[in-house]
Amino acid sequence: MINIKTDSRKIVPGDTFVALRGISSDGHDYIEKAIELGAVRIIAEEGDYSVETVIVDDSRKYLEDLLKQEYGHILDEMKIIGVTGTNGKTTSCYLIYQALNRLGFPCSYIGTIGYYREGKIKSLPNTSVDLCDLYELLVDSYDNGYKYVALEVSSQGLAYGRFNGIKFDIAGFTNLTQDHLDFHHTMEGYALAKQQLFKQLKDDSKVFVNSDDNYKQYYLLDNNINFTYGLNSGDYKVIDFKMSRENTIFTYSYNNFNYTVSCELVGEYNLYNLLLTISILNQLGIDLTKINEVVRFLKAPKGRMEKINYNNNLIVIDYAHTPDAIENIINSTKKFTLGNIYVVFGCTGDRDRTKRPIMTKLVLDNVAKAIITIDDPHNEDPNLIVTDMLEGVKSNNYEIYLDRGIAIQKGIDLLTNDDTLLILGKGHEEFIIIGDKKIPFNDSDIVLNYVNKSEINV
Questions:
Q1: Helix, strand, coil: what percent of the chain each, to 5?
Q2: Pairing between strand 420-424 and 107-111?
Q3: What pLDDT, in 10s, does the model give residues 420-458?
Q4: 216: number of Cβ within 10 Å
């Protein structure tokens, strides 16, 4: 465990506390608290304290240099695989994590659904943790024999410097679609934030870019060793696929050879995640025959196209919370649904408001009926969020239930014969955030409890 901290709440006796100035808070305000908890050394830009104090011009730059000096040799011995993109980061990294472990290369996973080595070790507060926490997880992986790591890299994490000083062996790009514009303001700003990953590479690192994406040129930088993948073009290219509720069989080509693979994952967007995984593993030096054998055992992470059978209907729980992700999952569901498609969804508070009516129109134009509910309202009035969602809506194929639990039950009640219910937006999450409160809630638990009661009462 590393003994350098930037969060005073995590201080244990003997630690060094680095006071960082942030957008909404200043670490200098917490120095005395850090000392009370046992910090023996303070790195700051001003002040004089009762323990050893080092005053520097830029405490953030000092932190990056200190971490690299103390632990850089460990990171040099690891294979760090970073994946960025609007959608698909979690699934791609989780697939890479599973596959490498099955192939005998101990690999950890760090990202949205937590920190995993052999199974889940703990949850994490954000997709991208702060720099000290990231080093701590990387060092913990190394100390436990996991020298490969599949790491989700978010645009906000890059913008906040949470990966500064980290050099990657592999960088992958999934896609770029509308999201986080409340933070990045423009799609170009969003694209450029992610581009930073492709400038933080070790010598002889390799880059993997979705060649079907409109923003691919931002990531195909001239000085890098680039590979592409896709359904329409790419070095690794899907040339045919068949999909059912249960599985997908697809054929892809590489170097003028074709390979046919079966897997449990469904959805066209998952073909991109699988192809990214296959291409990365192959360029790590693993034979495609071995990779293809492992692919059939891979599973999606919890809350990503998570399937629950109910009579002869299907209930799907997914994290989709952007226009592109919602469109993709509905289009994929159409390929294997004989009956109607229904959707339960909401929009997050305190986030990009412009995508709310876009998401609603996509849903209402493409499914039989939607149940509109809350997601994480944060500090916004849920009624005002719904008002944004319904701006310009002319159809009436929806109902509103702001209690998400009741909304899910209403959605299940719509199912009759060979129908599919999509419950979108929360995925794996264990809480609903209202104001400063985190209320325990999980979509899958609600579904299973209601379905089991229904089956007992039949």
A1: 35, 25, 40
A2: unpaired
A3: 999 999 999 999 999 989 999 999 999 999 998 765 444
A4: 19
Q: List, as one string, the DSSP characters of 419-453.
A: -EEEEES-TT--EEEETTEEEE--HHHHHHHHHHH
Amino acid at 454: S
**Paired tokens of 424:** 């979108």
Nearest to 89 by CA among 172, 188, 25, 30: 172
User: pLDDT category, 167, cuts 50, 70, 90?
Assistant: very high
Spatial CA neighbour of 276 closest among 116, 90, 96, 66:
96
Rounded-to-integer distance, Cα 219 and Cα 208, Å? 9
3-state SS class at 159: helix
Residue with tokens 């099955």: 102
Q: What's the pTM value of the predicted model, to 2 decimals?
A: 0.83
The single-letter DSSP state of residue 378 is B
- 3-state SS, residue 136: helix
C-alpha separations of 188 from 85, 152, 185, 353, 443 in Å? 13, 21, 9, 18, 34
Q: What is the pLDDT of residues 259-304, one digit of tens each?
A: 999 999 988 889 999 999 999 999 999 999 999 999 999 998 888 8
Q: Alpha-carbon distance 300 to 280, whole Å?
A: 18
